[in-house]
Write a structure and sequence with these properties.
By secondary structure, this protein is mainly alpha-helical. The chain is built from 12 helices and no strands. Helices cover 60% and strands 0% of the residues. The longest helix is centred in the C-terminal third of the chain and has 31 residues.
Length: 333
């Protein structure tokens, strides 16, 4: 298996350094992908699937989100307690402006602001939709919201109010869990631009996807194509990229993943415990340095004007491979 990986690596090096786009280049690429895929099928499939996510669900709440769980239900357009219609707002709604009653986690309300709506999880915590975030401010926002949303605060209220408080508190937890993790944050921001890396993005993007489905169905049901066109032409800070199925992984990124895999295997194969620990620590340090570089590259790509979505996708795929490497090193220590 190692020989086939090294053969694929050599072909990937040749492919990545070639400037020609000839039939011979295409043949090198296809051969490399076939070898890499064969190697993956024999024992390292998780390394050639960049969409595989390290799942840290301790603070994540439900897997798919309230909006996804109730995708067929239209969200309310008015407060359930006082029936006051929702006015325009650029922020996530926790309480009714009219009566102060807690609201469900998803409502249908007009968007206020020339840049359109930011992704849901950024709105929940009240932070700008940028990749570079202040983790201390993120944690402070989560704790501040949990103080007022925790179900214990609603123990003497109606059953409906208690249910809404649990929904909102869990949504805050999920927003914090996604946005504090660089890999989940990157994949979430890619999904917001229509550049998802895999089906597992549904776990974190469920609320946004359902919000878009409802907005689209509302326009369709009104039968007003002029409104739909106006909505599509609205200026937005989030530019959506066309989704391309089976997009090939950058050959240099795939080569890095294969080399890191070999380094981990070589280090773990050492029978001397001291040398084994030192070798694994060296691989871990190199991978951590690459992770830091990927995070910096993601900040430049996402927060640039305009954002560089292809560069963000490449860095996200590499970060996914490195996260998997970190997991495997811990397993072998």
């Amino acid at each position: 298996m190692r020989a086939s990986r090294r053969g694929a690596r050599d072909l990937l090096v040749a492919a990545s350094r070639s400037n020609a786009r000839s039939a011979s280049y295409r043949g090198v690429w296809l051969t490399a992908v076939r070898l890499a895929s064969t190697s993956a099928a024999r024992g390292c499939a998780s390394w050639t699937s960049p969409a595989r996510r390290c799942r840290h669900r301790a603070l994540g709440g439900g897997a798919r989100g309230f909006a996804a769980d109730a995708a067929d239900e239209h969200p309310p357009t008015a407060c359930w307690a006082c029936a006051a219609p929702f006015g325009a707002s650029a922020e996530h709604r926790f309480f009714c402006d009219a009566c102060g009653e807690i609201l469900p986690a998803r409502v249908a309300a007009p968007t206020r602001g020339a840049d359109g709506a930011a992704p849901v999880l950024f709105r929940v915590l009240g932070i700008a939709p940028r990749f570079e975030v202040d983790l201390d401010a993120l944690e402070a926002a989560m704790k501040r919201l949990q103080k007022v949303l925790h179900p214990d605060k609603f123990g003497a209220r109606s059953e409906r109010a208690r249910a809404h408080s649990a929904e909102q508190a869990s949504l805050v937890n999920r927003a914090y869990a996604v946005l504090r993790d660089p890999l989940r944050r990157a994949k979430y921001m890619l999904a917001a631009r229509g550049a998802r890396l895999g089906e597992d993005d549904d776990d974190d993007f469920g609320d946004d996807a359902a919000e878009r489905r409802f907005a689209t169905s509302s326009l369709d049901s009104d039968g007003d194509s002029s409104r739909a066109g106006a909505a599509d032409s609205r200026p937005s800070s989030i530019q959506h990229e066309p989704t391309r199925a089976h997009e090939p992984v950058d050959p240099e990124v795939l080569m890095l993943a294969m080399e890191t895999r070999e380094a981990i295997e070589d280090a773990a194969a050492d029978t001397d415990p001291t040398r084994r620990r030192e070798a694994l620590a060296a691989v871990a340090a190199a991978a951590a340095a690459r992770e830091s570089a990927c995070v910096a590259a993601l900040a430049r790509a996402f927060d640039g004007d305009p954002p560089d979505v292809p560069a963000a996708k490449r860095a996200t795929v590499e970060l996914a491979y490195l996260a998997r490497a970190r997991e495997e090193i811990k397993e072998k220590e």
